[in-house]
User: Fold this.
Amino acid sequence: AQSVTQLDSQVPVFEEAPVELRCNYSSSVSVYLFWYVQYPNQGLQLLLKYLSGSTLVKGINGFEAEFNKSQTSFHLRKPSVHISDTAEYFCAVSRYSSASKIIFGSGTRLSIRP
Amino acid sequence: DAGVIQSPRHEVTEMGQEVTLRCKPISGHDYLFWYRQTMMRGLELLIYFNNNVPIDDSGMPEDRFSAKMPNASFSTLKIQPSEPRDSAVYFCASSRRGGNSNTEAFFGQGTRLTVV
Assistant:
């Protein structure tokens, strides 16, 4: 079975600073990887996804993530954050052979300080 | 498309009452998921359907919880009887398998359930 670990439950950063949100996964088979964002009192919205091909994936709102198979990681980065990026971020994984069950990490709350 | 639609957005009920949450997936999607989100346990997958058939209900916490999908455009999650510990935000999501571009799940806005 696959699983996802988000090591940081909270990440505070100053506005316009860079940020990295960490995600590690475990799986015995190839996987798809996702990052979702949840703004207060809203549902989850897809930021980006890795399915195959280039290991550097670009998403919405200036975010990007890099798939590292050897380290089983899929860290999310943004070079300069904005107040509006304040939200909870979830890493998720699903099996390559079965695009069905999607397992989520515990989430990282990103708080931006002016 | 209007996206995944959940109703109601908020539900407050008394302990012991039956609660029914509703979901309309995106048209053409053949997978439907029910998740529960709490501060303590995060986002948990309760059950998911493929082509209206329940595939994995191992996340359903107890027999008090049941889910149905009578057709491709509607699903319900029922709790009977409800308990205060069921208070959470319940999300419905749908996805479509059929190529690399359609493997992510699209989420509804959620139903915030409070059991008093």
